[in-house]
Amino acid sequence: MSVNIEDLKKQRNLPTLLHQLSDFWKTEQKKRHDFYEIIHEDVKAEFINGEVIFHSPVKGKHWIVCTRLAGRLSIFVDDNDLGIVGAEKVMIRCTRNDYEPDIVFFEKEISQHFTDDQLIFPIPNLAVEILSKSTKNNDYGIKFEDYAAHGVNEYWIIDTEKESIEQYILKEKEEDKNNENEENTYHLHQKLTQTGLLKSFAVQGFEIELSSIFR
User: Going from the N-terminus, what domains does the chain have, and what CATH number goes with each?
Assistant: First the structure.
């Protein structure tokens, strides 16, 4: 959600608001620094709007679907030397928040600069989230907005209960060049349930039959 700067400028108590915002930002960044100190490979956690979110172990169907899809993606990406695919605990850094999507893809131009001991990664080309009751609001809310605003070209939301995948792409990928001053937003390219062919925009040439993920 964008803030109208012109309206903010007209506030009679603007200096007070700016001071309060500055204090708020310093406090939140201190929390974020502390978050970096406590995270490690054995914990799945995210930093969202000043709060540390620890995730509980996932259900069986969640990790089965994640493993199948990530495996297919990884093989295709490796065979075609396109970049790298990560699953479950790859932390990506946005301006304010840090997320660990279920699956990410980084094109070669980005991934070739990664180091073996790197812990935090830049914005991926593709992000995939598998819904759960505890994450659904964020997957459709703050993450949806953040991924688009930071230029994640493609975003898949998977519902293992309904056996469906929603494929979102940035409007610019649909050649919609209107409203150039607005923030990036996602367009629902397609929603598949149980069957259908999913073709990726971010991973050139990759396609998968939905039934092979949920079988």
Answer: 56-214 (3.90.1570.10)
